[in-house]
Amino acid sequence: MDSVIFLFLVQDGLVNGAIYALLGIALVLVFAVTRIIFIPQGEFVAYGGLTFALLSTGTIPGTAWLLAVFGAAAFVVELWRSRHVTTARKVLRQFAGAIVLPAAVLALTWLLARPDQSVWVNLALTLAIVAPMGPYVYRIAFQPLADASVLTLFIAAIGVHLSMVGLGLVFFGAEGLRAPALTSVSFDLGPLPVSGQNIAVFAVTLIMIAALYLFFDRVLYGKALRATAINRLGARLVGIPTAAAGQIAFALASALGAVSGILIVPVTTVYYDTGFLIGLKGFVAAIVGALASYPVTAVAALGVGLVEAFASFYASNFKEVIVFLLIVPVLLWRSLQTIHIEEDE
Q1: What is the pTM of this model?
Q2: Residue 5 clears pLDDT 50, i.e. is over it
Q3: Domains in the chain: how many in total?
Q4: Is 286 within a domain?
């Protein structure tokens, strides 16, 4: 291996690691607030990438219709759950959030979807379509199980993952899609060419991490999420609605997934089931961060990306195995360091 190949591998590893960092942070966020190991996180990556690719061709993506289906299902579930204590004002608020919002997004997509549309308009539309799916999924599948054990929530997450993969096949088909790069700017860094898309990945990742830091540190809703993550019972006692905290956490997670999909679809072909493998690599980083530490998760994600890049050079047939083996020593070490306590039922 010469120095040029080494630099190429480092660049690829850091670019992939930046994507995994966003996914790992989303997984840590959801687990800290809701105790859900969010296996379907990767599906939001696939939905975001495929939605952005279809919008780039001027096609109305199936996810715009799927958002309306999720919204209607969430509305029905909420009506049933609160049927004994509901009020007209609450029903109207639920109707606006679950029926009117998806309808408005669908209408906006219908008006703006065209082949010559700006890439930034398509990016905003993709976020508007995919990000609200997170809260709807939470209200349909997880909110009724909010007080269940972690194992029960994990089983529910697997069910949601399988359902979303099937829906992805229905709405996108089996063919993969790619999209144009966010920017065509490029330059040479010594012997290493750096593309505009790689610059965009780093820039967007840093912006998202900084925005999340400010959200948790300065915004009231972010502080409420932090309080819920630290002590759910204490958050309830001081008046923080943990159900709303879960919906906000899922909204942030789905938005991060959509952004990740937008960043990867110009550099690799995305299929309806692509997100699962990518999400698992973010999960490896989250496990290294003990599903609790955002900085450790971000650093671990960069490490996962570098290991994957060099493994693809030296042992391409086993690169996935090598990446997922990283989790084994971490789990062994944490198992030896942790005092096991039976979970209260």
Answers
A1: 0.87
A2: yes
A3: 1
A4: no
